[in-house]
């Protein structure tokens, strides 16, 4: 099982971490004390169980759960509350989707038992999913919500590597934006950059500049491949779907030594095309 620990100055954090890692079948894939950092990590990592340790206000964890559910990322949730929590706050925690709420004082035996129960539940769902796939040969309702996300993310990463921009500075920005689009199944124009990525207009401008530099590298690489293999269908599909072919054509002319003015790269066209490509051949 893959665990993630969100810790808000909880004095039992080290005990929690030791209990998780004492079982060799468990892996603590990340920790954070900041909601935004944890949210970003969970967009990128495969997390089966999220443990939220709150020292004073459980809204610290409730806000993160709501944010994750809004983009359809739903690991199992275990919350360790503060010493003084009113009934309404505890009820709200259960209403947003936690599986267990542990009240102080922290009991190591109880925590270990609950971790095993939740882990067993995750393993059971995974086995049911595999059985259903084998017997029905169709998509299963027992799939973990992240499985489709991972398939599309793998395809996106593969395309970015193919274009030769995986090592560019803007690559991380591309992946973050694509995860939002995949999770919410929305177009680029529908992204709420402030809510989902904490980017104001100035922040967006900086990010878009990094992305455009990365895309320029991708266009150059793809144009070079198109010169070498002009009839390759995959190259032509990427040229049209990701960059609009006229941009690739202009880059081909420049590589051949022809002085021609470059056009403006459409970031929206690239992201919408990349989302379309991520859905091809992997969810049949």
Automatic annotation (TrEMBL):
PROSITE patterns membership: RESPONSE_REGULATORY
Lineage of the species this protein comes from: Bacteria, Bacillati, Bacillota, Bacilli, Lactobacillales
Response regulatory domain segment(s): 2-119
Pfam families recorded: YcbB
GO biological process: phosphorelay signal transduction system
Highest taxon in the source lineage: Bacteria
Protein name: Two-component system response regulator
């Amino acid at each position: 099982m893959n665990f993630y620990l969100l810790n808000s100055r909880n004095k039992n954090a080290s005990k929690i971490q030791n209990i998780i890692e004492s079982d060799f079948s468990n892996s603590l894939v990340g920790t954070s004390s900041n909601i935004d950092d944890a949210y970003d990590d969970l967009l990128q990592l495969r997390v089966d169980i999220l443990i939220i340790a709150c020292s004073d206000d459980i809204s610290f964890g409730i806000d993160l759960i709501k944010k994750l559910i809004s983009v359809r990322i739903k690991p199992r949730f275990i919350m360790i509350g503060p010493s003084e929590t009113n009934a309404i706050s505890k009820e709200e925690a259960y209403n947003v989707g936690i599986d267990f709420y542990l009240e102080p004082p922290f009991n190591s035996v109880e925590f270990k038992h609950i971790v095993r129960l939740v882990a067993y539940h995750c393993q059971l769902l995974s086995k049911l999913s595999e059985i259903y796939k084998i017997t029905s040969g169709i998509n299963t309702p027992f799939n973990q919500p992240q499985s489709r996300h991972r398939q599309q993310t793998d395809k996106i990463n593969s395309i970015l590597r193919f274009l030769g921009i995986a090592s560019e500075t803007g690559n991380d920005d591309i992946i973050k934006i694509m995860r939002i689009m995949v999770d919410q199944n929305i177009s680029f124009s529908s992204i709420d950059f402030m809510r989902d990525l904490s980017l104001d207009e100035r922040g967006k401008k900086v990010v878009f500049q990094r992305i455009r530099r990365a895309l320029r590298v991708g266009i150059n690489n793809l144009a070079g491949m198109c010169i070498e293999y002009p009839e390759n269908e995959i190259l032509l599909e990427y040229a049209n779907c990701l960059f609009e072919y006229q941009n690739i054509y202009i880059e081909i002319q420049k590589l051949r030594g022809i002085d021609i003015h470059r056009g403006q790269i459409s970031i929206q066209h690239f992201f919408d095309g990349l989302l379309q490509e991520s859905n091809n051949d992997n969810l049949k």
